[in-house]
Design brief:
7 strands, about 280 residues, globular, Rossmann fold, alpha/beta, 10 helices
Length: about 280
């Protein structure tokens, strides 16, 4: 992975890192790089079972879960930008905290906060999300906007964490063999989500990091639970037996909007730029 560097991974909610970038994070940390995880929100409006209490209770649980995930991955620092979770429901939904929802945040203000962290850490690698926000969650789309602006402010190129959508649908179909998705689950939406295979610029082999990745997923117990004894997508993924799990989750993908050409296998390949102060 080249000379030691700092990698900052920017995510919308606790548990997003487990699904999209945890293998890369663990691989970077194991190679001696400093890994920093920034979450925009505490995930207070995440879907879960009623046992986790009201949004304030869930927020405390999820911040503890993301720290446990970070510990499993070797992450050196976790930062919460402190915005309110925007949720997936109507735009009037609030978590009751009175804070600005991330989807409503001024992009320049939020990007400035993120840029301060990038400068403080002298980051050489920085990741956010693709323009679709993956599956379209409002906070994920905002991560893309804020991340792109922070890249402009600092001069640090951004890698957009994503998934080839054809492989994602294949993984969901595999999960369906071991888990019955709820009626409202819309697989067609995933056929339009994330990125086309030809857009991928970085494919990272994380098969050796599978134990850490599974530990990261397990850390987010609240996001694997639902009322009535049911469980959710995260739990379904953890039910996939190995080696099928390794096949589905053994690689992670990024899009560099500046580049095309041969797919790269190291996110630290271009870390010579100077961070703008």
């Amino acid at each position: 992975m080249g000379a030691m560097s700092v990698a900052v991974f920017f995510h919308a909610h606790p548990d997003d890192e487990a699904l999209l970038t945890s293998g890369t994070m663990a691989k970077a940390a194991a190679a001696g790089h400093r890994v920093v995880l920034v979450v925009a929100t505490d995930g207070a409006l995440g879907l879960t079972s009623s046992e986790y209490g009201d949004p304030a209770d869930l927020a405390r649980t999820r911040l503890a879960e993301v720290q446990a995930s970070a510990d499993a991955l070797g992450v050196a620092r976790v930062v919460n930008l402190g915005y309110a979770d925007s949720g997936l429901g109507p735009v009037t939904v609030r978590d009751g905290s009175g804070r600005t929802r991330f989807v409503d945040a001024d992009v320049d203000v939020a990007a400035g906060e993120l840029a301060d962290i990038l400068r403080e850490e002298n980051a050489g690698v920085f990741t956010s999300y693709d323009a679709a926000g993956g599956y379209g969650h409002p906070d994920h789309v905002q991560v893309h906007r804020v991340g792109a602006r922070a890249a402009e402010l600092t001069g640090i190129p951004v890698l957009e964490a994503t998934v080839p959508r054809d492989l994602l649908v294949k993984g969901i179909n595999l999960a369906a063999k071991f888990y019955r998705f709820p009626p409202e689950f819309d697989i067609d939406s995933y056929r339009r989500a994330y990125s086309a295979k030809e857009q991928i610029t970085h494919r990272i082999d994380v098969r050796r990091q599978i134990p850490a990745k599974r530990a990261s997923m397990r850390a987010h117990a609240s996001q694997a639970a639902a009322d009535g004894g049911a469980d959710r997508t995260l739990a379904a993924f953890l039910r996939i037996p190995r080696p099928i799990y390794d096949l589905v989750f053994g690689r992670e993908w990024y899009v560099d909007p500046r580049r095309s050409g041969p797919v790269r296998h190291d996110i630290f390949e271009d870390t010579t730029q100077e961070v703008r102060r």
